Amino acid sequence: MIPKLRNPRVGQHAASGLIRHDEEGAWEQLNEQPFAFRHGLADHPLLSIERLARLSERAFDGDHYKRYFKACDLKLPRDTLKARFREDIEQIRENGKWMALHYIDEMDPEYGDLFDLLLADVEEITRRPVRSQMTWGSLSVFLSAPCLAVPYHFDHETNFLMQVQGEKDLWLYPREFGALTAAEIEDFYRHNPVAGIYRDELADACSVWRLKPGIGVHHPPLAPHRILNDKNVSVSLALYYAMPEMEERGHVYQVNYCMRKLGLHPRAPGESALSDGMKIKFMRALSTSNPRTHDELLYSGVSRLAAPFRWAKQLRQGRA
After folding, report:
1. pTM, full prediction
2. What's CA 14's distance to the chain center, in Å?
């Protein structure tokens, strides 16, 4: 049984129409093909740079702020880091930085309500009770100075990237073109977020999307993508969630990663229901039984399983 880490506020709101349902056929391709959609978040007051700068201080209510700084920076007083972080957001036009605020629905009840409203819209459009079935989900905001690029990478979750301010180009590489190898996906699921390797032959496989305020693009799980910001400040909101079958598929890849380290040739996910089921049960038995975060839910098992391989590698390096 896959644990669920849903925000307790989720499920309280009805659909609001913030995500528009224009093309029914497009939404039938959810999690399989990318598609564009319209939304009503352009110039939303919760997503102005000024409001996001104030929100950034809430990241310092606990230890969440540590993810935004290098280890050497964490030696500075928390108040110093809080002021610096807020200032970086306020000065995003001039400082040449790319910044993110993650889990904003957990930081402030107003953003929690926005998260719930957006999920309610997805439920109404897809006719699937996402909020009761998902294992986890959240909202992230991305702020980018003019002309910055986001490198080629891919994500685990169902993702809806919505442009709020500015314009940028998005290149998406759907899975059916073979953009990812099994080795890359397995490496990703052992907790390497930059496992994707761009190859020149992928240039003709991508679809290109122009993101403008009011336009969003659905990213299927494991669909590689890269982004180039225009000559403007960009603010984007990402709505994402994971369903139980996504977590289970990740566990199969994790076992396969370790099997390959032993010189074995495991079956790919979906080739054998019996094999997949055994791998999922094995990984769940190794995983933290009461995870507090999605990282613990998805990666705690493979971290324990991969420990002997890391130890052996360190031993060989020491002998060398």
Report:
1. 0.93
2. 25
Q: Which residue has the tokens 């899975």?
A: 175
The answer to whether 15 and 122 are in contact (CB under 8 A) is: no
Tokens of 48: 């102005």
Looking at residue 70, what DSSP letter applies?
-
Using DSSP's 3-state secondary structure scheme, residue 243 falls into coil
* First-to-last C-alpha distance (Å) of the chain: 43
**Dmax (CA) of the chain:** 62
Contact 148, 96 (CB under 8 A): yes
How do 98-102 and 136-144 pair as beta strands? antiparallel
Element (H, E) at 98: strand 98-102
Please say whether the beta carbons of 56 and 84 come within 8 A: no
pLDDT tens string, the chain, 320 residues long: the values are 899 997 777 999 999 999 998 777 899 999 999 999 999 999 899 999 999 999 999 999 988 899 999 999 999 999 999 999 999 999 999 999 999 999 999 999 999 999 999 999 999 999 999 999 999 999 999 999 999 999 999 999 999 999 999 999 999 997 765 678 999 999 999 999 999 999 888 888 899 999 999 999 999 999 999 999 999 999 999 999 999 999 999 999 999 999 998 899 999 999 999 999 999 999 999 999 999 999 999 999 999 887 766 665 555 666 54
Would you state the structure tokens that stand for residue 91, as one six-digit string? 């000065």
127 Cβ contact list (under 8 Å, min separation 6): none
